[in-house]
Amino acid sequence: MQPQRTDRYAFLPGTQRPVRIARAEGCTLFTPEGDRILDAAGGAIVANIGHGRTEVVEAAAAALQEVTYAVPPFVTEARLRLAERLQEHWLPDGVSRCAFASGGSESVDLALRIARQHFVSKGEPARYKVIGRHLSYHGTTLSGLDVADHPKRRPALGPWLHDWPKAPACYALRCDACRTAGACTLDCADGFEAAIQAADPETVAAVIVEPIGGSTAGALVPPPGYLERVAEICRRHGILWIADEVMTGFGRTGARFAVDHEGVAPDLLVGGKGLAGGYAPIGGVYASEAVTEPIAAAGDEVMFYTFAAHPSACAAADKVLEILAREALVERAARMGEALTERLQAELGDHPHVAEIRGRGLLQAVELVQDRASGHPFPREANLTARVVAAGLRNGVFFYPGGAGAAQDVVCLGPPFIVTEDELDLIATALAKAIDAGVARASR
Ligand SMILES: Cc1ncc(COP(=O)(O)O)c(C=O)c1O
To answer: Is the CB of 132 under 6 A from ligand 1?
Structure first.
């Protein structure tokens, strides 16, 4: 058999059936043959304003024409406009210093380096540990993997990673404390106190949290008061808290940032994906003056990435944020999120293999199990999530695979905020069919 041309793009040949995409518009991807794929995941939960907006492309091209490249510390008009828009309309109160990177992983790595530098510059060099949470993901750099707990992505790299204590995930479905008390007692938040104590509080620099979990366990929404409790624990110990909003930021959960649902502001906020909605590779770290001031006062710096704040990426991001505001798309994400929950509940609420439908705004997930009563998962080798995603694609809908550890099989949903009611109908019915098809294959 002739090797396929697409094999040239595969890094690990023969491991995946390639999906070819020729163009994309709105919520739809088109194959070269003209088949439509409804993008129920906005790519990797990225395409917040939808695909193919000419005005974003034009803004990026104009910035590139003006300045092809300048080292990140130099100021260009596109860079300045983006920082101003973020400060004036998007960032939580008190979080106003901006540093950019080329994506979520780089941005998390930058945030961790800033946190460490903050303490070194301040004369507290003993603080270097960062406490994360179980079932979390903070990107693919070694530093990001170090502070996260993604059971599938860490193992091969184990010898390079630290084993600092972790706080529990807020995972009510499988939480012993919630079950025993009959309600959430914020034991999950207090787990940070225990982890900090176990690590030796004087050596801890920061805590990192996804304010609403991403795809690792699938859209885990914390109980009310959770973030406030975490912030209070960090304050008491003189530790910085970092909110990783790479997946949740810029409207995805129906608020500008997930921290806004609780009205708390972190010391450092990390964003990525939705900042430019997939039109350009850009992420960022936003910090309070209290974080940056000691670094500036000591005359220290934090090294930039060569392609950070690329002028065309900044211009694309600026235009995407303008569109989000002009079309009131964050409010729409909240509304359509509720509509999506209703449809998923109607189609799947009683499904024998659906353990939970959860999420907020247009970041939602469905956790699948073999036995709903016990929460027992399908055998790992059954590859249920992959089968469901493949079945969805065969029927023209792309769902995002998630799940790890105890939350083994999770299908994530994150359509563009412009998604219509009709498209939500299609997403919910297609997901129900895909789950049935996946379960049938996994049960063979
Ligand atoms: C919470 C979170 N942090 C960091 C990352 C890494 O971002 P990227 O894949 O853009 O490097 C992701 C990606 O999914 C994420 O969800």
So the answer is: no
Element (H, E) at 365: strand 363-368
Instruction: Note whether 345 and 224 are same-domain residues.
Output: no
- How does pLDDT run across 380-421, given as a tens digit for each residue? 999 999 999 999 999 999 999 999 999 999 999 999 999 999
pLDDT digits (tens, 9 = 90+) for 74-87: 999 999 999 999 99
Q: Do residues 167 and 249 both lie within one domain? A: yes
CATH number reported for the structural domain that contains residue 334 in this entry: 3.90.1150.10
Q: Report pLDDT for 271.
A: 98
Whether residue 360 has pLDDT greater than 80: yes
How crowded is the C-beta side of 290, counted as CA atoms within 13 Å?
12
- Same domain for 75 and 164, yes or no, is yes
For ligand 1, say whether the CB of 139 is within 6 Å of any of its atoms.
yes
Using most ligand atoms within 8 A of CB, pick from 138, 150, 250 the residue to mutate for ligand 1: 138
Is residue 405 within 8 A of residue 362, CB to CB? The reply is no
pLDDT tens, position by position, 47-58? 999 999 999 999
Total structural domains in the chain?
A: 2
Q: 12: pLDDT confidence band, cut at 50, 70 and 90?
A: confident
**CATH number for position 132:** 3.40.640.10
Q: Are residues 72 and 102 in the same domain?
A: yes
Q: Is the CB of 256 under 6 A from ligand 1?
A: no
Q: For residue 283, how far is its CA from the centre of ligand 1 (angstroms)? A: 10
DSSP state of 309: T
DSSP 111-140: HHHHHHHHHHHTT-TT--EEEEESSB---S
The confidence score (pLDDT) of residue 154 equals: 82
CB-CB neighbours of 372 under 10 Å: 15
Separation of CA 90 and ligand 1 centre (Å): 20
**Residues 71, 34 share a domain:** no
Mean pLDDT of the region 125-145: 97
Same domain, residue pair 272 and 343: no
Which residue's CA is the closest to the ligand 1 atom numbered 16?
247
Pull the structure tokens for residue 277.
Answer: 């909605």
Q: Where a domain ends, among 326, 351, 371? A: 326
**Domain membership of residue 229 as a residue range:** 54-326
Our answer on whether the CB atom of 150 is closer than 6 Å to any ligand 1 atom is no
